[in-house]
Amino acid sequence: MEKPKVRWIDAVPFDHEGTAMVLLRDTEGIAEPPLIVSHEAARLLSLMDGTRTMEEIKGAYLSAFGGTLEVEQIREFVEAMDSHLFLASERFTRHFTLLQDEYDKAVVRKPYLAGKSYPDKVHGLTALLDEMFLASNEDPRREIGGEILGSLRLTSITAGVKRCTAACTPF
User: β-strand 35-38 against 19-26: which pairing, if any?
Assistant: First the structure.
């Protein structure tokens, strides 16, 4: 990769047993799991904006932060970041295209946050929802209403909006 470019990611500094570290998290959720790097590595990553060669990154790093750094170390770091999909690269593009194709072909799509933000098993989710409704003093079986909009796809929009009401019944 001639001029490495980092993708849009979150960088969250934190202290781990007295050592300053940075948690790198993909805001799009494509690169998982998050990575933990040193502050020096995060500084190096900040110079990867797609406009500098590795030799220029080395010069900019040494000029800004001092120390010692070899182009081979940068190359190894770039490869590691690319292998974890944190760089805008051909590897990332291939992976992203594969994800899009799988998504487009899937008849049923697993909820992305199942098992991450809420339980992915029916019984666990039911218990969580019941607990939430009990905490809010609302009846989980109350009548709800709304509008169902047709499905939205990248290539076409299914027209037809209809009114509906349904009894909210737990699993």
Answer: antiparallel
